[in-house]
Amino acid sequence: MQITIRGHHLTITPAIEENIRLRFTQMIKHLDQVNSMQVKLSKDHQIDKISKKGSDNHIAEAIIRLPGIEMFAQASADDMYAAIKKLTEKLKRQLHKHRKMQMEYSPVLA
């Protein structure tokens, strides 16, 4: 399995890369069907219209490619590690739902 990690408006540190690889390998260790994964991390500076103060918004996006299906998730938080954690939780739910559907529709061998 190949994991591609890209950064937009930020530098990918070894600690962030290790965190992503650890979380995603744990998440898909029971799925041997994963072809590839792309993770995009970005930092968006937004200005609040009311208070006129800026805030940093860390965004994590991922695409997981399985045979015949692509799964996409996006999460944002004030901290990049929190955004990555939210992202993996969303993808876990999608993968669990996908596995459940496969189990329901696969023929049972007798």
Automatic annotation (TrEMBL):
The keyword Endoplasmic reticulum does not apply. Keywords: Translation regulation. The keyword NAD does not apply. It holds the Pfam family Ribosomal_S30AE. InterPro entries: HPF/YfiA_ribosome-assoc, RHF-like, RHF/RaiA. Associates exclusively with 100S ribosomes, which are dimers of 70S ribosomes. Belongs to the HPF/YfiA ribosome-associated protein family. Short HPF subfamily. This is Ribosome hibernation promoting factor.
